[in-house]
Amino acid sequence: xxxxxxxxxxxxxxxxxxxxxxxxxxxxxxxxxxxxxxxxxxxxxxxxxxxxxxxxxxxxxxxxxxxxxxxxxxxxxxxxxxxxxxxxxxxxxxxxxxxxxxxxxxxxxxxxxxxxxxxxxxxxxxxxxxxxxxxxxxxxxxxxxxxxxxxxxxxxxxxxxxxxxxxxxxxxxxxxxxxxxxxxxxxxxxxxx
Length: 193
Fold this sequence. Notes:
Blueprint: E1 2-7, E2 17-22, H1 49-57, E3 63-67, H2 77-85, E4 89-94, E5 106-109, H3 120-124, E6 127-132, H4 137-145, E7 153-158, H5 163-176, E8 181-182, H6 186-189
Helix pairs in contact: 1-2
C-alpha cells in the first residue's frame, strides 16, 4: 500500500526511527481502524521486493516495520530475508489471524475481537499490544496475556478516538497490574505518519 521513513510511535520500539512497509489487504475489519484504505489488497499495485529494499536502504535507520492491513495475508519470507541480508532488523505488526511467515527479529501481536488469532502467536510473539476501546477490553486483554510466552512484553493502548475516556482506566489498571505497560500512539501526537 505504502512505504515511508518515520518514527515508530507505538509499543516497545516507540521513538525508534524505522522504515515502514504497509501491506494492502486486511480481513479483520476493526471498526476503529485508522487505515481502512488498506483493507482491499486489489486496490494497491504489487511492488518488487528489490524495489522495496532499495527504497528502505535510502534511509539511515536499519529497522524495517512490516504492518498493514494485515501483513500475514502475504508470504513475508522473501521480503524479510532480503531486508535482513541488507542489515535490517525486521519487525512485524500483526493481528495474528493468518499463518506466520517471514524471518522476524520482533513480532508485535495485536489481537482483535473481530477475528480470532491463531495459537502460534502466543509463543512466538515478543510483544502483546491490546487496543482498549471499551472498559471490558481490559479483561479480554488478560485472557490473551495469560497465554503469552513468559518473555513477552505486555502493552495496553487506548483507541485513539476514545483516548480521553480509556486512558484514565488504563492508567489505573496498569498501576494495579504492573505486568502491563502503556503504549500511546505518539506519532499521532507528533502529527507524523
